[in-house]
Amino acid sequence: MKIQLYDLCGEDEAARFSPPCWRIKYALHHKQLPFLAIPTTFARIKGIEDKKQSTLPVVNIDGNVIRDSWDIAVHLENTYPDNPTLFDGQGGFAAARFVEGWANSVLSRALLPLIIMGIHDRLGSEDQIYFRASREKRFGKKLEEVHCSDEAHIGSFRDTLLPMRQMLRKQSWIGGHAPLYADYIAFGTLKWGQMCADFNLFDEKDIVLDWYDRCLDLYQT
Question: What is the pTM of this model?
Answer without folding.
Answer: 0.96
